[in-house]
């Protein structure tokens, strides 16, 4: 696998490399030099069981600072017969701040800001998560149900001074975070899940041709995790587990 650059980034940015199962790379064929002022990552988890444990995520980083942000969806258990969609929007950047009510300081036990919402909504619909610059170095993550058009702000955070726009090209992943902190696990105990990752888009002038360019298995369960990937016209349908 040609993941040298990818693996290096992942080692520093995703705290638990072994728990990640599938990686993807995204990139725009054209993007302004200064970066993207907004990006939309669509996801669909219609086939995912309604159980906590998996994270379907895309990462992005910013010109002028070091650490990544990430956003994505996680299934949750039904509540009172209604399905619950969990959406997260985080930054690992030291010095990032927030005043938003859905957010708190710290990300995965390190510096940064984490924001999340749980909404009672339909798994069969595709969700867009938009990450957009709202002023200076402040960014907002919004969850949009593409069928009902209902939009919910996941959160907002402010990056340190000197942070620029979003760099063209980064990675995403499917992770089973339930294994986090467990001394060991067998790959064949991985529960089944499935999610569709769509090509990213952007309204930023000069941005064109957002694509998921590559999807690959990685971590310590390669070849043993029930991984099946199907490429669609503008998406990858990714299945893991049993
Ligand atoms: C969701 O994103 C896609 C492109 O990624 C866009 O075509 C569509 O209009 C968006 N839907 C909503 C409701 O914003």
CATH architecture: Sandwich
Beta-sheet strand percentage?
Answer: over 45%
Query: N- to C-terminal separation?
Result: 24 Å
What is the CATH domain class?
A: Mainly Beta
Helical residue percent? under 10%
Count of DSSP helices?
A: 1
- Overall outline: globular
Could you report the average pLDDT, rounded to the nearest whole number? 92
Q: Which distinct ligands sit in these coordinates?
A: 2-acetamido-2-deoxy-beta-D-glucopyranose
Count of extended strands: 15
Structural class, by secondary structure, is mainly beta
What is the chain-wise order of helices and strands? Answer: HEEEEEEEEEEEEEEE
CATH topology: Jelly Rolls
Biggest sheet architecture = 8 strands, antiparallel
Number of domains: 1
Uncertain parts: 1-17
Strand order of the largest sheet: 6-7-5-4-3-11-1-13
Integer-rounded radius of gyration: 17 Å
Plain-language structure description:
By secondary structure, the chain is mainly β. The protein has a single domain, classed as Jelly Rolls (Sandwich). Helix content is 4%, strand content 47%. The protein contains 1 helix and 15 strands; from the N terminus they run αβββββββββββββββ. The protein has one helix at 4-13; strands spanning 20-30, 38-44, 54-60, 69-75, 84-91, 103-107, 110-120, 127-135, 138-145, 151-158, 170-176, 193-198, 208-217, 228-231, 235-240. The strands form 2 sheets. The chain has an 8-stranded antiparallel sheet with strand order 6-7-5-4-3-11-1-13, with no helix packed on it. It has a 7-stranded antiparallel sheet with strand order 10-9-8-2-12-15-14, with no helix packed on it. The longest helix has 10 residues, at 4-13. Mean pLDDT is 92; it is low at 1-17. 2-acetamido-2-deoxy-beta-D-glucopyranose is lined by residues 40, 42, 128, 144, 146, 149, 201. 2-acetamido-2-deoxy-beta-D-glucopyranose binds next to strand 2. Keywords: Signal. Residues 1-20 form the signal peptide.
């Amino acid at each position: 696998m040609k993941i040298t650059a990818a693996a290096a980034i992942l080692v520093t940015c995703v705290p638990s490399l072994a728990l990640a199962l599938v990686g993807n790379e995204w990139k725009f064929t054209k993007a302004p030099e200064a970066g993207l002022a907004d990006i939309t990552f669509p996801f669909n988890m219609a086939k995912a069981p309604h159980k906590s444990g998996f994270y379907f995520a895309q990462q992005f980083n910013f010109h002028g600072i070091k650490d990544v942000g990430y956003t994505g969806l996680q299934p949750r258990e039904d509540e009172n017969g209604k399905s619950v969609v969990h959406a997260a929007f985080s930054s690992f950047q030291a010095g990032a701040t927030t005043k938003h009510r859905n957010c708190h300081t710290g990300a995965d036990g390190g510096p940064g800001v984490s924001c999340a919402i749980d909404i009672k909504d339909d798994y069969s619909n595709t969700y867009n998560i938009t990450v957009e610059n709202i002023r200076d170095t402040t960014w907002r993550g919004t969850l949009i149900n593409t069928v009902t058009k209902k939009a919910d702000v996941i959160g907002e955070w402010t990056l340190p001074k000197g942070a620029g726009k979003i760099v063209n090209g980064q990675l995403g992943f499917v992770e089973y975070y339930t294994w986090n902190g467990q001394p060991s696990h067998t790959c064949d105990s991985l529960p089944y899940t499935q999610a569709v990752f769509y090509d990213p888009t952007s309204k930023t002038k000069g941005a064109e041709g957002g694509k998921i360019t590559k999807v690959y298995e990685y971590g310590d369960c390669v070849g043993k995790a029930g991984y099946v990937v199907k490429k669609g016209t503008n998406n990858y349908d990714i299945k893991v587990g049993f």
